[in-house]
Design brief:
The protein is of the alpha/beta class. It contains 8 helices and 12 strands. The strands form 3 sheets. The chain has a 6-stranded mixed sheet with strand order 6-7-8-3-9-10, with helices on both faces. A 4-stranded antiparallel sheet has the order 2-1-4-5, with helices on one face. Bound molecules: adenosine-5'-triphosphate (ATP) and magnesium ion. Adenosine-5'-triphosphate (ATP) binds next to helix 1.
Length: 244
């Protein structure tokens, strides 16, 4: 169980996350919202990577009381990419993580098709390949809470389904899995719950059925949104009203 209480984050004098509170049981949760609404910042704060006010508890334990070297037992933030690319191979990158479970790492390397990339330098792989390697590394940690940032932005459609199926399975096995994404399709087909941030405030916190609401989503993104459901597949389509 993840409890976030009155969490706020400021970069300098600018408040980016504004007193956000929610509780999540083991489940798969979409974290959506416009660019700059605070999704990445919220995930990083929960993972203790940026300073915050308020509290974050996992299974009743306040993360402020957990030593930094034990934090990965509780929470892992999986980035979509790495900004400064170190001079190492993908294999070194994966093995450099002391908190990874090696058997699990091997499994995810296989599932995400990373085997043939292990001896390549980090800058010698494509964006989607790097993203898949980072996912393999992050998911191999066995953390109780997984915070996955934009896992669908570089991956192709087949791997998008592979990634979402994996995350679904981890949630079914008892983890709290939060996926921040601007890629509403296929994200919304897999999740139990929707959280949305608008200008740093929690704007939607609802189960999928009520969370995916045309009016709410239109207000969230500032464009007209249509929800289409076919054979239990949910898709959300922005309608371009300026288009003739
Ligand atoms: N290190 C930083 N220093 C100052 N401002 C920052 C920093 N990182 C992010 N911001 C600002 O904080 C706000 C929230 O950014 P954040 O990256 O959390 O948004 P996001 O919802 O993840 O957006 P996106 O959909 O583009 O990934 C934005 O206005 C951004 O410009
Ligand atoms: Mg982001």
């Amino acid at each position: 169980m993840l409890e976030v209480e009155n969490l706020s984050v400021a970069y300098g004098k600018v408040n980016v996350i504004k007193s956000v509170s929610f509780e999540l049981r083991p489940s798969l949760v979409a974290l959506i919202g416009p660019n700059g609404s605070g999704k990445t910042t919220l995930l990083k704060a929960i993972a203790g990577m940026v300073p915050y006010s308020g509290e974050v508890l996992i299974d009743g334990i306040n993360l402020r009381h957990i030593r930094v070297d034990r934090r990965t037992e509780y929470v892992t933030y999986v980035p979509p990419t790495i900004s400064a690319l170190p001079d190492m191979t993908i294999g070194d990158l994966l093995l450099s993580d002391s908190s990874a479970d090696v058997a699990l790492l091997e499994r995810y390397v296989r599932i995400f098709g990373v085997e043939r990339l292990l001896f390549r330098r980090i800058w010698e792989v494509s964006s989607g390949e790097l993203e898949r390697a980072l996912l393999a590394r992050g998911l191999a940690r066995r953390s109780k809470v997984l915070l996955v940032d934009e896992p669908l932005s570089y991956t192709d459609v087949r791997y998008q389904l592979v990634v979402m199926r994996c995350l679904r399975r981890l949630a079914n096995e008892g983890r709290v899995v939060v996926v921040a994404s601007n890629q509403l399709n296929p994200l919304l087909n897999y999740v139990d719950r929707v959280l949305a941030l608008k200008d740093g405030k929690l704007f939607i916190n609802a189960p999928l059925k009520t969370g995916v609401d045309e009016d709410k989503l239109s207000e969230l993104y500032g464009v007209k949104m249509k929800v289409i459901t076919i054979d239990n597949i949910v898709d959300v389509v922005p309608l371009d009203e300026a288009k003739g």
